[in-house]
Write a structure and sequence with these properties.
Distance between the termini: 17 Å
Number of helices: 2
Order of helices and strands: EHEEEEEH
Radius of gyration: 17 Å
Number of domains: 1
């Protein structure tokens, strides 16, 4: 299976930036169109902390109005005097992108592409 990698800067419509010594790829699992799990690599500028949260720390993100795209926000966590946004990992790829990945998996395993022009 291929592990696709997406640059979160580009996904969030931020300015492109060169990789630096702190740039890393985080591997997460997203729910595919068939209800299964598949790996996805996320390129991020840096990782400063890995946090564990108790259920009472998890809050619904506030409404930011129309100025901020919140479709990638799952929740917020209070850590001391900071608020940390939690990404909606399953929302990073839409259904069409997940279908295209399934086709690439098929092709990488030697099968014939089905469903999209490859």
């Amino acid at each position: 299976m291929l592990v696709p990698v997406i640059d979160l800067r580009l996904r969030f419509d931020a300015d492109e930036a060169p990789c630096t010594p702190t740039t890393v790829t985080i591997v997460v699992y997203v729910t595919d169109g068939a209800g299964g799990q598949r790996p996805l690599g996320l390129v991020v500028d840096a990782v400063s902390d890995v946090l564990e949260a108790n259920p009472e720390q998890i809050k619904v993100p506030p409404s930011f109005g129309t100025e901020v795209d919140t479709r990638f926000m799952e929740s917020m966590i209070t850590v001391g005097d900071r608020m940390v946004l939690v990404l909606r990992i399953d929302g990073l790829l839409d259904g069409t992108e997940l279908e295209e990945l399934a086709v690439l998996d098929e092709v990488s395993l030697g099968g014939e592409p089905q469903g999209i022009g490859v």
